[in-house]
Amino acid sequence: MSSSERVTSGLAALAALLADETRARFCLALLDGRAWTAGELARHAGVAPSTASAHIDRLVGGGLLAEERQGRHRYVRLADARVAHLIEDLAAQAAPEHGRPDGPPTLRAASAAGALARGRTCYDHLAGRLGIAVTEAMTARGLLRQDTGFALTDAGLRWFADLGAPLAPSGRRPLARGCLDWTERRPHLAGLAGAALCRHALEAGWCVRIGSARAVKVTPEGERALAELLGLPAATLR
Amino acid sequence: MSSSERVTSGLAALAALLADETRARFCLALLDGRAWTAGELARHAGVAPSTASAHIDRLVGGGLLAEERQGRHRYVRLADARVAHLIEDLAAQAAPEHGRPDGPPTLRAASAAGALARGRTCYDHLAGRLGIAVTEAMTARGLLRQDTGFALTDAGLRWFADLGAPLAPSGRRPLARGCLDWTERRPHLAGLAGAALCRHALEAGWCVRIGSARAVKVTPEGERALAELLGLPAATLR
DNA sequence: GGGACGTTTCGCCGGATGACGAAATCTCCG
DNA sequence: CGGAGATTTCGTCATCCGGCGAAACGTCCC
Questions:
Q1: What is the pLDDT of residue A238?
Q2: Which domain holds residue B158?
């Protein structure tokens, strides 16, 4: 009983951390995987610095955020991939049903900005249309198996090695896992492989971050590489 | 902006549902996968029926619970497997670090009640030592692959078919997924396959529920079956 | 040294929320 | 029909919590 007692209050306490709009906004912003300063978060959420400070205290205390102090700055980021995944899951569950009416918005999107794939990062891996497209292409090529769960195949392991980003099982984080995309409603590749792919994509110039949000856009080189390595038609990303 | 606005409030609202101890207790109780009446939940949590009623309203309204009214009873259960998984994930994250001191408790447990495996159900699949043992045995036998993610192998698919519980991909729920066990700190089999296995185990008399909690114990027939089908030594479950 | 800047501490205020009990509803069953 | 039991509605109360601004504290840089 006392044990179940602890689990109950632990769950409630953890949920309480995310139950406030300001703290929720902080966490969603931090899903970009980078470290933000306390002041940046305060401005982002539109609250006073003192208010933000107290919130950050609670989030750090609750183990959701990790902090690193540098001089007069207080940098915070999500504690680890597991926390990031948890927040993504919650956001996915909370996402409005968004039955997308295929009216003007779709048409406008189709005719819009050239090489812009509606992609974004989700903590440390690719998400959005781009993330889904890559994940589907890998599945179609037999690099990833989604029919019986979510795992890389041996061919998938080789593919990463050939890419120059060999995957080494490390710690508790799984090599591959599906992360439900809350805009596309389908899983995209997460886990160590997802992180490695995203890192490689940014380093190799396949895509670049745009703005301060989590958005990324595919570069021409990226289109070529994805077409060659995964058979992804450039049109898919536009 | 308005979109990110909605996501933020959605996340906060969802978290707020679980941020109350009483509601958290309800949800954890409902993890046994069965339907409880409003009164049962009220007694379980030690609150007045009127209080419980209001909480259930909110949980149902938030989509976490599904209700079914039968006469003067109001039955509620978790809305679906996804909600159950979310709650398990949160509980796992919130679980105290539980560095288990291997003193008396372990010794006592080792010498205790004969054929009692410390198993339990997690919504609709097996968890605890039993769930882990089964998952590990399936992995060792090549029925499940955990090194590159978490997925059944083709041999695993056949194993379920041979068992008389063929798996048919259905809807959005994945065939196999890892569910982090918050007492064992390792993933056990969840998803459709986990549910099928648990259902089969209960129907075939491999294990029976004990008490009103989520605990299950393995029967002698269960020991025989698990030894034969998975090479699980009976001692593992004791 | 001194000013600018980022962060924190403190005290206070107003709104939100969970708890209860009493009484009203509703359903079942004798 | 009428009583028993399950659930809900309503009014009330106490508490908690997030917000702010002012002032203090540290660090950086001129």
A1: 67
A2: 113-237
